[in-house]
């Protein structure tokens, strides 16, 4: 419904227009009339009509003056002039002001309605276009501007590319660029924690830790977001590993304190892996969430243990999880039996038929083994299913000897998983070396080619290759090329520059310099005086760098 206001100094015309049209039926609201422009001004301010109908020649303030004022004050208002004057100058002035229609008197109600419906349709069209533009602007603004919480959450969830993260962070003036990243997650079940605090106000250490967690959330908000009511997530960044370590220290200290002193508090802090790319923040987040999960299981188990009647046993005698983890990581088979016997000595007097404390102690060690050695079991499709299988074994233990057998089996299982990982690396390294042997003669052969061959990133392959072979990829490639060059120099009559091309060097001068630096002889001297055995010894003791 469009609001109509009529301005004309002839009362008869106002009455005819007002009374001869069924305004509501036609989709309009007749909002009043005035005898001249000056009288109309306050009415227009109050009513703010959609369409203004006005005469031109009126006392005090004529229609053109009124229209000029209204077009500036209410630019969306449509103006229709009805006048008995057909002079061109009037019409031209009206058009310059922005009048929508110029009609000559006398005008019948039917003709006026036709003009009103035309103007009403134009209003509807303009409003629709305006609404669409507003929606487009809102959508554009939403796509170009993103809240910090959503940005960080999407980054951790893996829903955002590096370029998208850079674009959105710039739009909200958030600096997310660094050389290294690590994610920390605080899982604080606030309702339970508050309830616990009320019931156990005497536990000063736990209350202090709870306060520290709340302060952490309040005071460290840069690159932090609330993932849920209980989970707070930080993306910690540093330009150097040392800086990152300093930034992470507060979280690590709090994590250690919670593990040692707050077994019954519903708090867990998980810390992810260090990553050197923004795109890999997602991996660090998954590691942190996994760390939270295992720490929660451990806390729940130890909470049950602390609530049990342990008057005859001191749990601290056999809860040295650190010693168990150390042996699991670096222990040997020939010391396995003696270590387990000593480690489990504190459990000798447990009556497995009447007390369940032993089950919780073994469960605590088992959960810690899974948490601390996640890299060993991560290749398993269902690690929690493996944990459940071990927990079922614990439930069947009835003697100290069975306890020792269980611990031995637990350690051996993790050693088996570890050997599978090493075998996996061994097979991968063997494939890379074989690929190098088949392609070393290509002058553009690179680490990138080998990484694509085994479906790994160049950085990861470079790191693993160095760890497993004690030499870098380029060192190994250079060694293969130089050894092949020595063989060609001794077994063929190919010239030095031909040998260079045959082993992957398109610059003979560079090849000769590299060959002399690594063997102590030029290619010509080696062909004349050198032996492969002597030079191989030199190669084994030298560090090979093509780019040095």
From TrEMBL:
Leader sequence residues: none
Pfam families: GGDEF_2 (PF17853), HTH_18 (PF12833), Response_reg (PF00072)
UniProt keyword list: Cytoplasm, DNA-binding, Phosphoprotein, Transcription, Transcription regulation, Two-component regulatory system
Domain of life (superkingdom): Bacteria
Domain Response regulatory: 3-120
Residue list for modification 4-aspartylphosphate: 55
Keyword Phosphoprotein (UniProt): yes
Compartments in which it is found: Cytoplasm
The UniProt record lists the keyword Acetylation: no
Matches recorded under SUPFAM superfamilies: CheY-like (SSF52172), Homeodomain-like (SSF46689)
Record protein name field: Response regulator
All copies of domain HTH araC/xylS-type, residue ranges: 430-529
Taxonomic placement: Bacteria, Bacillati, Bacillota, Bacilli, Bacillales
InterPro entries: CdaR_GGDEF, CheY-like_superfamily, Homeodomain-like_sf, HptR, HTH_AraC, Sig_transdc_resp-reg_receiver
Originating organism: Paenibacillus marchantiophytorum
């Amino acid at each position: 419904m469009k609001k109509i206001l009529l301005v004309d100094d002839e009362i008869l015309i106002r009455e005819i227009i007002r009374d001869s049209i069924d305004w509501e039926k036609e989709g309009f609201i007749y909002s009043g009339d005035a005898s001249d422009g000056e009288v109309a001004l306050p009415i227009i301010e109050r009513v703010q009509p959609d369409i203004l109908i006005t005469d031109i020649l009126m006392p005090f303030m004529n229609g053109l003056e009124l229209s000029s004022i209204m077009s500036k004050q209410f630019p969306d208002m449509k103006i229709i002039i009805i006048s008995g004057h057909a002079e061109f100058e009037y019409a031209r002035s009206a058009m310059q002001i922005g009048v929508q229609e110029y009609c000559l008197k006398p005008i019948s109600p039917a003709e006026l309605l036709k003009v009103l419906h035309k103007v009403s349709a134009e209003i509807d069209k303009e409003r629709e276009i305006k609404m669409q533009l507003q929606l487009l602007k809102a959508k554009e603004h939403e796509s170009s501007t993103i809240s910090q919480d959503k940005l960080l959450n999407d980054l951790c969830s893996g829903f955002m590319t590096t370029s998208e993260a850079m674009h959105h962070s710039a739009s909200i003036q958030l600096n997310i660029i660094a050389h290294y990243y690590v994610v920390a997650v605080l899982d604080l079940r606030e309702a339970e924690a508050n309830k616990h605090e009320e019931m156990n106000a005497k536990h000063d250490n736990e209350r202090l830790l709870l306060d520290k967690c709340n302060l952490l959330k309040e005071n460290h908000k840069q690159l932090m977001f609330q993932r849920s009511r209980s989970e707070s997530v930080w993306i910690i960044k540093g330009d150097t590993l040392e800086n990152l370590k300093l930034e992470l220290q507060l979280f690590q200290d709090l994590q250690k304190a919670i593990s040692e002193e707050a077994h019954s508090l519903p708090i867990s802090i998980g810390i992810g892996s260090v990553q050197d790319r923004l795109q890999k923040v997602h991996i660090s987040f998954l590691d942190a969430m996994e760390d939270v999960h295992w720490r929660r299981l451990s806390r729940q188990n130890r909470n049950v243990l602390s609530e049990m009647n342990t008057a005859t046993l001191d749990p601290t005698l056999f809860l040295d999880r650190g010693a168990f983890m150390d042996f699991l990581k670096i222990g040997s088979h020939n010391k396995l039996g003696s270590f387990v016997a000593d480690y489990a000595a504190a459990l000798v007097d447990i009556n497995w038929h009447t007390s369940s404390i032993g089950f919780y102690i073994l469960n605590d060690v088992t959960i810690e083994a899974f948490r601390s050695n996640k890299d060993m079991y991560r290749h398993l499709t269902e690690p929690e299913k493996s944990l459940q299988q071990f927990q079922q074994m614990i439930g069947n233990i009835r003697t100290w000897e069975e306890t020792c057998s269980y611990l031995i089996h637990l350690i051996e299982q993790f050693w088996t998983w570890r050997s599978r990982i090493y075998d996996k690396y061994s097979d991968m390294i063997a494939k890379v070396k074989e690929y190098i042997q088949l392609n070393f003669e290509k002058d553009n052969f690179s680490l990138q080619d080998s990484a694509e061959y085994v479906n790994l990133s160049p950085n990861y392959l470079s790191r693993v290759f160095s760890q497993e072979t004690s030499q870098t990829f380029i060192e190994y490639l250079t060694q293969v090329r130089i050894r092949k060059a020595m063989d060609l120099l001794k077994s063929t009559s190919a010239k030095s520059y031909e040998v260079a091309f045959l082993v992957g060097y398109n610059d003979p001068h560079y090849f000769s310099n590299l060959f002399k630096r690594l063997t102590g002889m030029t290619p010509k001297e080696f062909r004349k005086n050198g032996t492969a055995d002597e030079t191989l010894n030199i190669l084994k003791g030298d560090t090979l760098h093509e780019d040095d």
